[in-house]
Amino acid sequence: MSNQFSSISGSKRSLHLHVAREIARAILSGELPQGDIIPGEMALCEQFGISRTALREAVKLLTSKGLLQSRPKIGTRVVEKKYWNFLDPQLIEWMEGITDVKEFYAQFLGFRRAIEPEACALAAQNATVEQRKELSAVFQKMCELDAAPALDIQGWIKIDIEFHRLIFFSTGNDFYLPFGNILTTIFENFFAHASQEGGTCLNEHRNIYEAIMAGNVDKAREASRKHLLSMSHDLTS
């Protein structure tokens, strides 16, 4: 594991963030195996060309994301994958280019199928008047984009994200709120892939929207379930 990192002393990015990214990518790719002790402070400082302060900040950041664990007289160990915080947007960004895209999105889709239909059902039941107005405005924008002669992919991705974020925000259940915030990075990359492969799926969004606006819990849940099932075709096309 010695000398696997290059000096970043001339980097314009915050040094500790750059170091954290490089170490994280080594962990995520398996270059630094789970359970292994990473090189010591002196070795890493020399390889990266940084101070101990910058390195310790990087290690602290990676520890907060569940990737590393430091123990006195033992060193800093790579934590087992089951403890990594995959809901962290920064961790998702660091994974770019070192994971199988289709496999990752398939796993994320499976996760969405487990939680989003119930979020839609709760939104149908609990959304406030203001939240329903906001959702209506977002859906209207979706219709306008879909009707345009040429689809604005980036515009659609942005409004599609907002549509699903609003649903999580409208559940009336605080435990759903993080999925409207923390997962934005994942949603953006996921929708970019799905939209380019499978279009807008406006009618499926319409069914979800109309069920929520009508307060029909069962219909909202089923519309979301069908939408997420159809997305598997977009991801494998």
From TrEMBL:
CDD domains: WHTH_GntR. It comes from the Bacteria. GO terms for molecular function: DNA binding; DNA-binding transcription factor activity. Residues 13-81 form the HTH gntR-type domain. PANTHER family: GNTR FAMILY REGULATORY PROTEIN, TRANSCRIPTIONAL REGULATOR, GNTR FAMILY. Keywords: DNA-binding, Transcription, Transcription regulation. InterPro entries: GntR_C, TF_FadR/GntR_C, Tscrpt_reg_HTH_GntR, WH-like_DNA-bd_sf, WH_DNA-bd_sf. This is FadR family transcriptional regulator. SUPFAM superfamilies: GntR ligand-binding domain-like (SSF48008), Winged helix' DNA-binding domain (SSF46785). Pfam families: FCD, GntR. The lineage of its organism: Bacteria, Pseudomonadati, Pseudomonadota, Gammaproteobacteria, Alteromonadales.
